[in-house]
Automatic annotation (TrEMBL):
<dbReference type="InterPro" id="IPR001611">
    <property type="entry name" value="Leu-rich_rpt"/>
</dbReference>
<feature type="domain" description="Ubiquitin-like">
    <location>
        <begin position="352"/>
        <end position="421"/>
    </location>
</feature>
<dbReference type="GO" id="GO:0005856">
    <property type="term" value="C:cytoskeleton"/>
</dbReference>
<comment type="function">
    <text>Acts as a regulator of tubulin stability.</text>
</comment>
<keyword id="KW-0677">Repeat</keyword>
<dbReference type="InterPro" id="IPR032675">
    <property type="entry name" value="LRR_dom_sf"/>
</dbReference>
<protein>
    <recommendedName>
        <fullName>Leucine-rich repeat-containing protein 51</fullName>
    </recommendedName>
</protein>
<dbReference type="InterPro" id="IPR000626">
    <property type="entry name" value="Ubiquitin-like_dom"/>
</dbReference>
<dbReference type="InterPro" id="IPR029071">
    <property type="entry name" value="Ubiquitin-like_domsf"/>
</dbReference>
<keyword id="KW-0433">Leucine-rich repeat</keyword>
<keyword id="KW-0597">Phosphoprotein</keyword>
<keyword id="KW-0963">Cytoplasm</keyword>
<keyword id="KW-0206">Cytoskeleton</keyword>
<dbReference type="Pfam" id="PF14560">
    <property type="entry name" value="Ubiquitin_2"/>
</dbReference>
<dbReference type="InterPro" id="IPR047991">
    <property type="entry name" value="TBCEL_Ubl"/>
</dbReference>
<keyword id="KW-0175">Coiled coil</keyword>
Length: 425
């Protein structure tokens, strides 16, 4: 049901966390919160506020009474205001400036692009370490203002903001470790390199669902731009279509985790081939597409890589092939072993002084074989005893006693013998 418009943060807070809607509960981090100051609020001893406030999709447009916010939210560390109707940064600032211990703030899907964020307002965000601006259509100018005023910002989420380019900030943000900028339209690598310039301490870069094209950057430049990058997510990068782009990832000096699903380059390979070829090409990676790469898997993949390319023309063989040949030597092709069970066998059927070579189906039972032999030995099935002799068995013939037993369970092979004898009355 749609919430009415024009509701304040404080109004929603009082409604949601009233004793009727959020009753007293015992346990860590729970219970009635009674702030020491300020005095005079008829509500302050009645609200049950956790340190994590979730007020998403509540129709909030403004802050409300700032003294009340300060009274109730002194202990709050996380605040989710996503999917509201906040369009004025001044109102956001009124809320945040009265939550002194706030570390996580989610402003996703608020129409904040309708106003300009001034530096004095952004200063109220100073203690925030994780900021989510997904689908807020925040301009790069807004992002730059935030970066200048948040000295401890560690994680920034800028997904679904329709970015086609990246605008460099006049100052670097040394504190940022994680940038989540998925589902935009960042196609050219020259835009991605700007992120390295702005965030030199970046540990994790999540670029999934962009239309990123080839990585046009020298190895030395990539190492300088992203010296601390440990993890990169390139899921569904529609423009990555050659192995040279994958090889470029080796230029990041600290990279150890890669996600690479849904890119055109890999579509023609089987799931097993994709994983092994990627592992072999990325020797420093310890986690691929969310799965740990064990030492045994790496060796198997590198040996697979050698055999995969050993029949390719010299001009098509990647440099990594020669590195691995130096490591393992030139390997022999794997023998092709057919593990399918044998369906028939040519055996010698012995009866009295007669020997007849026959091809018998191994999926049939002993009873079915007896019916097949009736016309050959001129005995009824009830008057027939069968003995199987494995040509390599040291113990002599084995009686085939059980009518319902399948012939393949005896391990019958070409050249074996079956003896038929009449049952003694």
């Amino acid at each position: 049901m749609d919430q009415p418009s024009g509701r304040s943060f404080m109004q929603v807070l009082c409604e949601k966390y009233s004793p009727e809607n959020f009753p007293y509960r015992r346990g860590p981090g729970m219970g009635v919160h009674v702030p020491a100051t300020p005095q005079g609020s008829p509500m302050k001893d009645r609200l049950n506020l956790p340190s994590v406030l979730v007020l998403n999709s509540c129709g909030i447009t403004c802050a409300g009474d700032e003294n009340e916010i300060a009274a109730f939210c002194a202990h709050v560390s996380e605040l989710d205001l996503s999917d509201n109707k906040l369009e004025d940064w001044h109102e956001v600032s009124k809320i945040v400036s009265n939550v002194p211990h706030l570390e996580f703030l989610n402003l996703s899907s608020n129409p904040l692009s309708l106003s300009v964020l001034e530096r004095r307002c952004a200063g109220s965000f100073a203690g925030v370490r994780k900021l989510v601006l997904n689908n807020s259509k925040a301009s790069w100018e807004t992002v730059h203002t935030i970066l200048q005023e948040l000295p401890d910002l560690e994680e920034l989420f800028l997904c679904l903001n329709d970015y086609e380019t990246v605008s460099c900030s006049p100052v670097c943000c040394q504190s940022l470790k994680l940038l989540h900028i998925t589902d935009n339209n960042l196609q050219d690598w020259t835009e991605i390199r700007k992120l390295g310039i702005m965030f030199p301490s970046l540990d994790t870069l999540i670029l999934a669902n962009n239309n990123l094209t080839t990585i046009e950057e020298s190895e030395d430049s990539l190492a300088r731009l992203f010296p601390n990058l440990r993890s990169i997510n390139l899921h569904k990068s529609a423009g990555l279509h050659c192995w040279e782009d994958i090889d470029k990832l080796n230029s990041f000096p600290k990279l150890e985790e890669v996600k690479l699903l849904g890119i055109p380059l890999l579509q023609s390979y089987t799931t097993e081939e994709r994983r092994k070829l990627l592992i072999a090409r990325l020797p420093s990676i310890i986690k691929l597409n969310g799965s740990i790469v064990a030492d045994g898997e790496r060796e198997d993949s590198e040996r697979f890589f050698i055999r995969y390319y050993m029949e390719f023309p010299e001009e098509e063989v990647p440099f990594r092939y020669h590195e691995l040949v130096t490591k393992y030597g030139k390997l022999e092709p794997l023998a092709v072993v057919d593990l399918r069970p044998q369906s028939s066998a040519k055996v010698e059927v012995h009866f009295q002084d007669k020997v007849e070579e026959m091809s018998i189906r191994l999926d049939q039972t002993v009873a079915e074989l007896k019916k097949h032999l009736k016309t050959v030995v001129q005995l009824s099935t009830s008057n027939m005893l069968l003995f199987y002799l494995d040509q390599e068995a040291p113990f002599g013939p084995e009686e085939m006693k059980y009518s319902s037993r399948a012939l393949h369970s005896y391990g019958i092979r070409d050249g074996d013998k079956i003896y038929v004898e009449p049952r003694m009355k």
